[in-house]
Amino acid sequence: MQVLLLKEPRDGESGPDPYIQELASHGHKATLIPVLSFKFVSLNTCRISPRAVEAVKMCLEAEERREEWNSSVKEKWNSKSIYVVGRATAALVRNLGLNPLGEDTGTADVLSRLIIEREDRNIPPLFFPCGSIKREVLPTALRENGVPLETLTVYQTAEHPDLEKNLKNYFTEQGAPASIAFFSPSGVKFCLEVVRRLSGEELPQIKFASIGPTTQDAMIAEGLCVSCTAEQPTAEHLAAAIAKSLQ
């Protein structure tokens, strides 16, 4: 069956997208349509989420910064705890030569509990590079438990300029898919009206899937019936959930 994935391609990796591969292993053909575009900001401040890691990487593109990073700064960063919320971000962090913690937490809520358990309340503020659209789960949980945090917006999120055109082309060529997967509340915000319009009378037959509870909440708030949510935000778990919903 046809599955539409409303997500961005993998960062800095070649080869098939793991979500497409996993769904293929269940006998489904998936198509990926990018939903978001990103503008990196505050790069001079951020000297050293996957987009936040990409912003850090961009800061190191200048030769002198890369030399400083390799000679001393990377070692200093590795002497500290580097927290991430998922496997994709963890892989990008490792590419920078850093050692991530928390890649199996899956949500900001679970990650915040890990940080609270590990960190002393008298430490210098944790540094949190983030996007312009972020939920306050992590900052609020840390603040309420006395863990200091300093945030810096390093990327701004907007709708992908070709989103509506790509969706129209997909529905024209493929028709309504059996399942549509959302990967962020922003994706729900930017896509849902177009998806509803293009699906027409077939909308009730589509199985809507969510990558996690935050996105699920956004879908429910917009009146969507969520057929399945991945137990963890991974290709394996989402593909298994979608395959089950399509049985």
UniProtKB/TrEMBL annotation:
Pathway connected to this protein: Porphyrin-containing compound metabolism; protoporphyrin-IX biosynthesis; coproporphyrinogen-III from 5-aminolevulinate: step 3/4
Listed EC numbers: 4.2.1.75
Main enzyme class: lyase
Reactions performed catalytically: hydroxymethylbilane = uroporphyrinogen III + H2O
Coiled-coil annotated residue ranges, if any: none
All copies of domain Tetrapyrrole biosynthesis uroporphyrinogen III synthase, residue ranges: 19-239
A GO CC term attached to the entry: cytosol
Listed InterPro entries: 4pyrrol_syn_uPrphyn_synt_sf (IPR036108), 4pyrrol_synth_uPrphyn_synth (IPR003754), UROS/Hem4 (IPR039793)
Keywords (A to Z) from UniProt: Heme biosynthesis, Lyase, Porphyrin biosynthesis
One example of a Gene Ontology biological process annotation: heme B biosynthetic process
Superkingdom of the organism of origin: Eukaryota
GO-annotated molecular function: uroporphyrinogen-III synthase activity
Similarity remark: Belongs to the uroporphyrinogen-III synthase family.
Function: Catalyzes cyclization of the linear tetrapyrrole, hydroxymethylbilane, to the macrocyclic uroporphyrinogen III, the branch point for the various sub-pathways leading to the wide diversity of porphyrins. Porphyrins act as cofactors for a multitude of enzymes that perform a variety of processes within the cell such as methionine synthesis (vitamin B12) or oxygen transport (heme).
Protein name per UniProt: Uroporphyrinogen-III synthase
Species the sequence originates in: Dissostichus mawsoni (Antarctic cod)
Lineage of producing organism: Eukaryota, Metazoa, Chordata, Craniata, Vertebrata
